């Protein structure tokens, strides 16, 4: 790939393809959260000799809150690494692929929040309270919905880290 093609701007086709893939991914994870939420109402309540139901609920709540709200911090760190890598290679397709992988990692963390809802439903206070964990995971997934604006902003910020294009072309 030449320096000029590596530095080419984001095309409409690339943007639409990336957004479709990202939206399919979040929709699939959202579907998993819904299936988990509904299934908890049919799972048997299990006793636990180590922890009381309230203890299991508090442990599930602490884990869900820590995982859910640290996902944002983790995403920022991953995105910073992705932008720095783009500053070196300058390939839009790699940037978008890395972005999708980082997004997948965030969604996996949010699915674990839903998993905490299963713990609360089965070993804790029951499916009614467990439902709040599924709602939290769903809200956090919804706030991460991929948009054209967010993607263009990512590309713009990543391109801002690139060395001056004029000096890069004259150096070849």
Description:
There is one protein chain. Helix content is about 80%, strand content about 0%. With about 170 residues, the protein is mostly helical. It has one domain (about 15-40, about 60-160).
Q: What's the arrangement of secondary structure elements?
A:
Layout: H1 3-6, H2 12-40, H3 53-89, H4 92-123, H5 127-143, H6 148-160, H7 165-170
Helix pairs in contact: 2-4, 2-5, 3-4, 3-5, 3-6, 4-5
Helical run tally: 7
Roughly how many Å apart are the termini?
13 Å
> Which whole number gives the mean pLDDT?
88
Instruction: Report the count of strand segments.
Output: 0
* Structural class by helix and strand composition: mainly alpha
Describe the sheet with the most strands.
Answer: none
What is the approximate shape?
A: elongated
Name the poorly predicted regions: 1-6, 166-172
What is the count of structural domains?
1
Tell me the radius of gyration. 21 Å
Strand content: under 5%
Summarize the structure.
The protein is mainly alpha-helical. 80% of the residues lie in helices and 0% in strands. The chain has helices at 3-6, 12-40, 53-89, 92-123, 127-143, 148-160, 165-170.
Search tags:
172 residues; 7 helices; single chain; mainly alpha; disordered C terminus; disordered N terminus
């Amino acid at each position: 790939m030449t320096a000029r093609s590596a530095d080419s701007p984001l095309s409409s086709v690339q943007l639409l393809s990336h957004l479709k893939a990202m939206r399919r991914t979040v929709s699939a994870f959202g579907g998993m959260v819904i299936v988990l939420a509904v299934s908890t109402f049919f799972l048997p309540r299990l006793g636990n000799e180590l922890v009381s139901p309230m203890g299991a609920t508090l442990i599930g709540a602490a884990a869900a809150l820590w995982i859910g709200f640290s996902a944002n911090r983790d995403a920022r760190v991953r995105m910073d690494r992705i932008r720095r890598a783009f500053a070196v290679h300058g390939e839009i397709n790699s940037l978008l692929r890395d972005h999708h992988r980082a997004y997948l990692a965030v969604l996996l963390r949010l699915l674990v929040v839903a998993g905490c809802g299963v713990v609360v439903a089965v070993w804790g206070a029951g499916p009614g309270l467990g439902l709040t964990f599924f709602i939290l995971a769903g809200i956090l997934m919804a706030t991460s919905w991929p948009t054209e604006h967010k993607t263009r902003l990512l590309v713009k910020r990543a391109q801002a880290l690139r060395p001056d294009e004029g000096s890069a072309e004259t150096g070849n």
